[in-house]
TrEMBL record:
InterPro entries: Beta-barrel_OMP_2
Protein's name according to its UniProt entry: Outer membrane protein beta-barrel domain-containing protein
Lineage per the UniProt record: Bacteria, Pseudomonadati, Bacteroidota, Flavobacteriia, Flavobacteriales
Keywords of the record: Signal
Origin superkingdom: Bacteria
Keyword match Signal: yes
Domain (Outer membrane protein beta-barrel) ranges: 19-182
Organism: Leeuwenhoekiella nanhaiensis
């Protein structure tokens, strides 16, 4: 699994050699995730507030168009109301179902005006952590799940970014999984991501 994640990251960032012109740039980004699970088999649940962060590369093709591969750690999943009528566990108000991925978006980046761009493309995602946390606002409460969700997800990502002349940028994005979280279960990931970053 680790080899697959590493290979995907190298492919995404390694395309610099074949696509990049003299103005290619690398950077970092970080931000917030508001994620949930959708589908006819998903139970009534609330969003999970978490984080994302990683590396970006911009490879210009023309003045208005670039290829932007990324390697991002994205903490996703959902939140459900806690029920512990027998008081067997010290449970917080809510319980988090945590699905954390290494996402490799391969995005077309189209500049609408100077600094403002539209980004969209496929995303190859690898599950790196699955657990239930019944104490999400404190330490402890983590229950790891083994052989649960599918370890591979094919999805999409789309959003807007504004990049200042300094290299600092702000970004908003929607991500959606096309493949099911579990086999034979109609449930899919989605998240709204907001963040900031800097390209060198």
């Amino acid at each position: 699994m680790k080899k697959l994640v590493l290979m995907a990251g190298l492919i995404a960032l390694g395309t610099t050699a074949s696509f990049a012109q003299s103005a290619y740039r690398f950077g970092v980004k970080a931000g917030l995730n508001v994620s949930n699970i959708t589908g006819s088999d998903s139970r009534d649940q609330d969003t999970r507030l978490s984080f994302n962060g990683g590396l970006v590369a911009e490879l210009p093709i023309s003045d208005k168009f670039s290829f932007q591969p990324e390697v991002i750690y994205s903490a996703q999943g959902s939140t459900i109301a806690a029920i512990d009528e027998d008081n067997f566990l010290d449970i917080d108000e809510n319980i988090e179902y945590q699905l954390d991925y290494i996402q490799v978006p391969l995005l077309a980046k189209i500049y609408l005006v100077d600094g403002l761009s539209l980004q969209a493309g496929p995303s190859i995602n690898f599950l790196v952590n699955e657990e239930v946390d019944y104490q999400p606002v404190s330490n402890g409460g983590d229950v790891n799940i083994v052989d649960g969700a599918n370890t591979f997800e094919l999805g999409t990502a789309a959003g807007l970014e504004y990049q200042f002349d300094s290299g600092f940028f702000i970004q908003g994005r929607y991500t959606r999984g096309f493949t099911r979280i579990y086999d034979n279960v109609n449930a899919y990931n989605y998240a709204v991501q907001a963040g900031v970053g800097y390209v060198f």
